[in-house]
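Fig. S4 source data, part A: sequence.
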Amino acid sequence: MSIKRETGQPEVKAGYEEIKSFFEAHGQFLEKYAGDSSIKIEPSPQGLGTFAIDLENGVLYAEPSRFGERGWSEDKILSSVCHEYEHFKELKELLDEKGGDITWQKHGGKIKANRRFGILDNCIDDIKIDRRVEAKAPILDGAIKRKYREDLFQSPDLTDQPKHLQFAYALKRRAILDEKLILDPEVQEEIDKLDLVENNGTKLLEYATRPETPMSMRLKLQERFLEPAFERLFQEDVEEKKKGDSKKDDDSEAGEGESGSEGDDGKPSGEDAKKKSKGKAKKSDGEKHAGSSDENADESGEIVDPEAYFKDEYDEFDKNNPEPIDYSSDEIKKKIEEYVKSQQGKSAEQEALEAYAKAEGVSLNEIKEYQRFFSQLESLENPETGEKVIEELRRIFKQIIAERKKERYAPKHPLSEGEILINPAEAVAAVMAGENEPEVWQSQERKDLPQELFGDFDVTLVCDRSGSMEGEKAREQRKAAVLLLEALKEFCNELDEARSDLKHDLNVRSEVWGFGGENEVKMLKPLSDQLTEKQRVSVYKDLADTPGAKTMDFLALEKIKNEVTGEEWQKIKEKKLRKIIIVLTDGASDDKSKVQGILREFDAAGVAVAGVGVTASGKSAEATYAPNGLVCETAGNLAAVLADLLKKYLKDLLIKQ
């Protein structure tokens, strides 16, 4: 992904032209950011003038001028659009959970009735949301951090704020900026207590704000651990405000004997009465919170709102933390009710599918999207043979399994003598015709299988996630990778079914790695015979993104080499394990000599490494990975080329080669 970065203040255009301009510059980035999720990002319709959501069709309508009018640079605006996307996605995920609408209603009621809890919730949720954005688009990390420093919290000294706000702001700021803050000692003490709460070595707040933590779980943890501490500090702040008001009242009453004016009943009148009421935290009838108790009433019985003491601070928070979508509005509430109603009455099959998806750690929409993608791959053809790629692989799988089955007595006929008479009528006719040894018998022939066969077969696919792969090459690489993974998983399944009949067992494992810059050099799918839905979706999403600025294939190969255990090296040496590594790349390695040095180590140990250059831009792979380097001239043929390579190495498992 790439974005336009501004060093100064961008010109803010008016109206729909600004939206068009923004999406012309960043539409492709946002499309890739959303990936194949059930939610898309589209420009707000002309005249709308704000962000909006469509729950039923899964669309976030973005209005970037809502941030542009603040004078933000384009990368800050882009990170904020992604931020709003994640808020919407989180809501949809919650509503798709069983009972999620009840959780949302309860939560919404709480923050609508108590402004302070809305601020705490915003701070904690923003940690998770910004972590989601950083994880999916690392290029926006700098913009997010600059927003925190320049726009949200301009100073690490938060002691000018009420203690309950210090608490909320500190949790948010330190999670993203990881810096030392200056806080009231009582606030620091509450935070230190929270840091002692851990789950399997993970601190509470870290766990609650992980990108993958469901909103329902975050809210439970927030209510159980964060809100009590926040509320204690709030009550202390209120008491301090009351003491301040009391002191003002005392001072005012002391002065009334000298200069204050009183009415006939001895009470302050006119302007003096107004002055005395100034600073009191009262609430109008329209602002009274549900469930207010008598302890919040003054002597006249009027409800006192303790939050009114902090109106200025709360207003300042709202100003610095603009919410383009008011999720507590009646309009959004109506949309949610309509969406929940449309999801009701699901079949038992639908509920089972959703339960399965949840157990697998992905959404049902993600599974469906992946399945649609793979169904298209099953029709891919090998341009040289005209046969479907997957069928060619299936044929060799069946051959390998058939050859490894236990020795059987194979029938041999027709014979002139044997143990079984297979054609009595023909035998009688032959004898009557004077033929003494008619070939009407069948015998059983026994044939032993070779004893030395590979028992394990590992395939490692190394994918190029550098920026030059963006576009068709990345799409075709993803197709090839998914096809290979699914084919090997199918092979594993067939082996499991035939295992009781196998004389020579076979275990097949697969793994996927990525490379680009250092951030992209990582394992995308661990080495195993499993392929879970979460792994499928993860590989599918990761390979849609090519943010790398370098070609550090050598670093990926080095890490793969270091992952091989001593036991596995021994099995490779004894020819009990066949290990294959296939590298896809569209450009020259950043260190060809390092690659070739690692290749020599692999070759000496008995590991085969092949390099495939993707289109003419990857021609250097021929020399870098010689003698096992080749070029796939047309990106669209990559799946077939990869399948041909796999077939080549699968032949090592055959008896009859």
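Fig. S4 source data, part B ends here. Residues 1-14, 257-279, 283-297 have pLDDT under 50 and may be disordered.
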